[in-house]
Design the sequence.
């Protein structure tokens, strides 16, 4: 930084990168971006208070922050699940702020919610077919692609999803979102509630999915592990961007460690099956 930034001069690099002006500069040409988003559930109460985020092609971007910070809300507003009150969401230069989820799926955006993300009474194969209802003719080809990432889903294709463990269900949910060949995958706490072994497996799979060319935005409570695999991370606090930097730099930022990683890491250790 030079001496021309005024008040920004006192910000740490990760705080400075989270400023709206720096966001606008770095978000140029992004695959997906959110600018100055406000959104909420109850009239008159905003949960997001001017959030900014961008995702470049082939990136994995993580969103971390304390409980109730608005991480899931941000993901839902990107996917048209809650109305955006002001600000814009853009996909490849197209304004998609008001687009609904089913339209976004056809535009190449996949979303995996944190809970209730499989149909328990359907088999694995039927769950994957549900993800393909818009392009059922390509089922065999996409099934092979998904089976390449999650071989277990092919081996157990006839089992009911309700009989699977939490980690296996997460694979079904991610596999289903991948059936539509998305270019962007939005994952809401994919490791939540899983044992440490399964948590790690989820992060390994995310890297593999990303290596096939899918760009990922991931909300995570397992902040350390998330930042280890992310190209860049955002720390969200009270509906606003607090810090953003590479995953590596956030992991080593003394303020981020003190304010966010200690307590979040403590919560993660309570993971169960
Ligand atoms: N459907 C809803 N109706 C009303 N308020 C909601 C709803 N969903 C979430 N909220 C509120 O919005 C705020 C942000 O919730 P959100 O789930 O986005 O937080 P988060 O950062 O993802 O936290 P967590 O890690 O606890 O899931 C919280 O105060 C929550 O109570």
Sequence:
């Amino acid at each position: 930084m030079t001496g021309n930034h005024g008040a920004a001069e006192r910000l740490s690099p990760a705080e400075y990168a989270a400023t709206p002006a720096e966001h606008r500069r770095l978000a140029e040409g992004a695959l997906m971006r959110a600018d100055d988003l406000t959104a909420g559930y109850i009239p008159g109460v905003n949960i997001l208070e001017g959030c900014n985020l961008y995702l470049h092609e082939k990136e994995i971007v993580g969103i971390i922050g304390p409980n109730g910070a608005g991480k899931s809300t941000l993901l839902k507003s990107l996917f048209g699940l809650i109305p955006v009150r002001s600000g814009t969401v853009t996909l490849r230069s197209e304004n998609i702020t008001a687009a609904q989820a089913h339209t976004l799926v056809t535009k190449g955006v996949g979303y995996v919610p944190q809970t209730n993300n499989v149909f328990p009474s359907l088999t694995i194969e039927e769950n994957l077919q549900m993800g393909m209802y818009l392009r059922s003719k390509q089922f065999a080809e996409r099934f092979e692609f998904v089976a390449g990432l999650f071989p277990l889903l092919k081996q157990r294709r006839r089992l009911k999803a309700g009989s699977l463990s939490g980690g296996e269900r997460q694979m079904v949910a991610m596999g289903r979102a991948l059936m539509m060949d998305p270019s962007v995958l939005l994952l809401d706490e994919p490791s939540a509630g899983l044992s440490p072994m399964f948590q790690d497996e989820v992060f390994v799979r995310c890297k593999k999915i990303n290596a096939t060319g899918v760009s990922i935005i991931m909300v995570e409570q397992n902040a350390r592990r998330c930042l280890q695999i992310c190209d860049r991370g955002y720390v969200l606090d009270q509906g606003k961007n607090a810090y953003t930097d590479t995953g590596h730099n956030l992991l080593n930022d003394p303020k981020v460690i003190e304010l966010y990683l200690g307590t979040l890491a403590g919560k993660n250790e309570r993971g169960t099956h």
About this structure: The first strand starts at residue 32 and ends at 39.
